Amino acid sequence: MRMASDRYQDANATMSTWAIARRLPRTLGRAVRLGWATDHRAVLSLAACQGAAALLTAIALAATTRVLAGLFTGDVLAGLQGRAGALAVLCIALSGRYLFDAAARAAAARLAPKVVREADLRVIAASTAAELAAYEDPDFENARQAAADGADKTRDLILDTQLLTSAAAQIVAAAAVVAALHPAVLGLLLLAAAPCAWGAVRAARIEHDAHHRNLGDSRLRNVFRSYTTEQATADEVRAGTMADFLTNQYQIISSRLEDEQLAATRKALTVRGIGDALTALATAAAWAALVLLVSTGRIELAAAGAAAFALRTASAALSTTVRAGAGLFRTSLAVGDWHRFLAVAGPWTARRGTARIPETGPEVISVNDAAFTYPGTDRPALSDINLDLKRGEVVALVGENGSGKTTLAKLLTGLYLPTGGSVHWDGIDLAQADPATVYRHLGLVPQDYTRWPLDARANIHLGQPRPAGDPAIHAAAEASGADAVIAQLPKGLDTSLARSWWGGHDLSGGQWQRLAIARAFYRDAPVLVMDEPTAALDARAEHRIFTRLKSLAAGRATLFITHRLANARLADRIVVLEGGRVIETGTYDELLQRGAGSTFYEMLQLQEGA
Ligand SMILES: Nc1ncnc2c1ncn2[C@@H]1O[C@H](COP(=O)(O)OP(=O)(O)OP(=O)(O)O)[C@@H](O)[C@H]1O
């Protein structure tokens, strides 16, 4: 089993290194914009300190060459005395430069975490704004994972940018001095840096491409790792004696990842080695040229010391620039992933229209010839669905596993839009409605409800307390049977249920489900949808929910999915799904009267052991 690499990898592989390198200015622009969005002052102080450090570097270098030229006049003492001013300027400029450099690093360090937060917030915003169906698209998921890494790398983007601009400032200063001595030496020096830069950039590209090829496997390995070690699966792992199997899977994927990484590292090291060797040769040539220029009298001996110093400074600054540039290139690839996710998520953003569902919620939900096919699949999960759900009515949705019940519930609630046909709330097509105005009318108990690591109160109000305060929470808890759960908690509603994090309390599966139901009731929404709401409840708790459902459902459009067919008795209407189609509808009694010809009747007979 191997996860397919993502589409980005294929597109990226065809892009030349030069084309990617050309994106560097854009990446730098992004760094500046992100920084500006989070902390204007830090960006300004970073730029000011960096500028001041560059200026002082140039001044120090110019002063150094003057001092060195004095040393080569023959009389060292007299030469130095004559250049006492230059010496003083050198000392002041050097100290100032180190101070400004340190201040620039401090500003970058202050800015970097804020930029990471901002980048991550944009990933969060793009994810939550996306259509739910986006999560079914592997490209969206891979891009989302790469974006999380990329957002983290924006920290390096700031630090690399700071390092690069600092090194570049040194180069400009040193290059000016070298060029003043003889332009040919500067040309040679720049030429010498080229192979090293090429090797470093190419190696960064090879390593990043390998990282991308491995994204799918990395995701899979993380899943195996967490399933093997986390509490939620710990019982199955032990009871199923699965530890060896899972560890083996982990090792198989790890070996594949390591092979891929090793091959990439070998390739990258070779490329980098070739670049470095060529640079060493070219640097030697630059030094030889300097010797030649001095020996042929094209540069005076007095200036030779200064020239050697400037050459040394320039080549050191060049090598720092190349390293910083390659680092920035690598970072820019990762940050490009972050940016790419925002682009991938863009078309998935729920832009359905501006129609607003009225404040009072819908009176009728109607499904018209609706069909739904999951992204990346060929077989429709639902076809030819026609259904009405009215306010004040309770509908039970039943059918075998995989018949399409959960998918239909997601269409009715606007969580998915049909891929064919339409769903209307009071005549408003949900494809044209502002999703926020739809969702606020929903009370939903999903099949896989979440155990939020919050206190009991927040587990019910989910950060949206109603003006009625705790009495409304207690009323919802009472209706769902969660009141008995809360009564047992040492601090009642204040008890933390985030046991794995801060040592709070944990609940049983059924107790969590009671909270999940309470949370749907608490929203007091006109549309109530419950997907197997009592699957984990004991008989008494289940009975309590269903005997109260009628009064709770008064004034709401209620739909519940259940496999315990006897519960469907209290529904006003039962809808039976099979293979993604509605095959029967009717009241409980009507369906039973159909006898052996009715699927519902047959299923009920099986369940009751008749
Ligand atoms: N995320 C998905 N991607 C692709 N196909 C899916 C996805 N979720 C469900 N399906 C397919 O859609 C069909 C309907 O699934 P759905 O979950 O709606 O069934 P269900 O009736 O709710 O089943 P159950 O009773 O087991 O909860 C099934 O064939 C299933 O394989």
UniProtKB/TrEMBL annotation:
- Name the domain of life this protein comes from: Bacteria
Q: Where are the transmembrane segments?
A: 43-63, 83-100
Question: Which key words tag this protein in UniProt?
Answer: ATP-binding, Membrane, Nucleotide-binding, Transmembrane, Transmembrane helix
- Report the GO molecular function annotations: ABC-type transporter activity; ATP binding; ATP hydrolysis activity; ATPase-coupled lipid transmembrane transporter activity
- For this entry, the protein name equals ABC transporter
Gene Ontology CC: one annotated term: plasma membrane
- Coiled coil located at which positions? none
Using the record, list the residue span of the signal peptide; answer none if the entry has no such feature: none
- The ABC transporter domain, residue ranges: 365-604
One Pfam entry for this protein is ABC_tran
Q: What is its main location?
A: membrane
**Recorded topology in the membrane:** Multi-pass membrane protein
Report the subcellular localization: Cell membrane
For the ABC transmembrane type-1 domain, which residue ranges apply?
42-330
Q: What is the lineage of its organism?
A: Bacteria, Bacillati, Actinomycetota, Actinomycetes, Kitasatosporales
